[in-house]
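This week, think about what follows.
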Amino acid sequence: MSYDPPPSHPYRPPGPSPSHDPYAYTYDTYPWAPQEAPEPAGRRPQRHAALGQHSDLRVLRSAYRWQRRVATLTALGYFLLFLILSAFAPSFMTSTVTDGLPTGLLLALIQVPVTWLAIALYEQTARRRVDPIADRIRRHAELDAKREGAR
């Protein structure tokens, strides 16, 4: 085995010469962390928030989420109640409401109007909460498109 001494000068890749500021070089603590993309040259800074970062989109998402939960829990909640009563209260489900009409059959037939109620709640919350927010975002998007077209 032979021993080769290290060169008297360290290898430096070609490029801009380093400044003499000892704090000019910063080392990433986590090199796998995503790096920030540099701003593209020649673009003017925006005077208003971009549509994708607009708070109305967060409001729209939460209103739509609430709307889906109300409609889903209405329909599935009643169906789950029917299943639980069928499994754990068979005597209640077989008892008769009127001559020849058991309670279980009546509750099963009521599922159709409950589904219609869930659909009506979905449409009503859409008209009252979701649609106005979506219309406002649509108007803002049209204004932004006109502003971009005028530049």
Observations:
- The first strand starts at residue 96 and ends at 98.
- The chain has a mean pLDDT of 78.
- The CA atoms of residues 86 and 93 lie 6 Å apart.
- The helical segments are 55-88, 90-94, 103-150.
